[in-house]
Design a protein that fits this description.
By secondary structure, this protein is mostly helical. About 50% of the residues lie in helices and about 10% in strands.
Amino acid sequence: MDGVLIRSEQEWMREEQDEGMLEHIFGEEITKKLGWTVGISIGDIYKKGVALGSSVTKEEFMAEYAKAAQKVYRRCQITKGVDKVVSYLKSNGWQLALASASPLDWINLVLNRLTWKDQLDLVLSVNEHPKIKPKPAPDGYQYILKTLGSAVADSIALEDSNPGILSAKTAGLFTIGYTEHLVEGYKQIEADAKAGSMDEVIRILDAEKH
């Protein structure tokens, strides 16, 4: 979802860094040590903060992120052309799944803005499944493949972050790295192919089909 369907990573960085949310939660020193939060689940951000010495409770942490999510997911830009990709996939008989580490109510903030949300065959919030390890573990993709009855060889993942790419590739999927919304300085690695627009995604899918 983040960084693929929507241009949200910049908005999250604005909240976390420019607006000082992480510093408010963890303090200046721990925030400096956190490093990149792009593609990292909120649960893992919390765990990392605690490991670095924070005493904030999980409830306090989640309350701050929930407030920020209401702003981020209402103002972030939906990726241009994503509806064309959905139309292409559905017209060619693909099943379509969305996997995100975000809580389901955050995901719904985005889904409610999409005209094609009813065409999703599966929506997975890893946050709602304690037994599913978040990215970079392959658990989420393995769950999707099993639930939809899809073969690994017939499945493709579209990811922007390195944890997401590693998750999909560890599950055995051909993985497209989406680069359009990458934040400045983020080095995307190990994708099987790269696309800077949704038109490029369709070209890659066409090539793979043949």
